[in-house]
Design brief:
mainly alpha; Four Helix Bundle (Hemerythrin (Met), subunit A); 2 domains; 3-stranded antiparallel beta sheet; 3 strands
Length: 224
Amino acid sequence: MTLVEAGRLPARPVGRDSMQERVYRQLVQMILDGELEPGRTMTIGGIAEAFGVSAMPVREALHRLSAAKALTVVTGRSVGIPPLTVARLTDLCRVRVEVEGIAAEWAAANVDATTLGRLDGLIQRMSTAAGTADHRDFLPLNRSFHFAVYEAAGSESLLALIESLWLQIGPYLSLLRGSGNWRTANRQHQAMRDALARRDGRAARAALRADIEEAAALLERLLG
């Protein structure tokens, strides 16, 4: 059963300009926001139908995402989120702490009032989302918060590297729904925001590390 057949993938027509890139970016956003959960599968035809495009740009986008280890072939005509082992989780956690930590530290030197205001709004909205029954909005808001910080670092190369890491771990963050981690994470978000406001790069990096490692510890127990 595909996500389309299961009613899980809403129709999202894509314009004809830069079709392959637009399809790719749309799938990236869905993966980062936890819309494509582990255990679900998609077909090329199902995605093409939902996006209102031909199969060709979908194939090309899926090839790029498979190369980035964000998706894997499940059967000849369907793809899904790759399985996550404890060893792979540990490796991703270690790399994320270092790479995303650098971004948080650099952001402390560049952050402005506009970005801080955006972070405040996202923290408030995440707090509201964490208290709802299905927490549906939390992951997109969480992703927006983190990437607002990483964008403030001012490095496109670093941002691209971080996105590649999030494509591999992002779908599994949905497993933390109902674990209580999202409330804890928001306390770390507040600590990170306050450190950035003080331009304290080391404290921002420490808050980010705590956020990543606490989530990874919970995921390890779930996977185990």
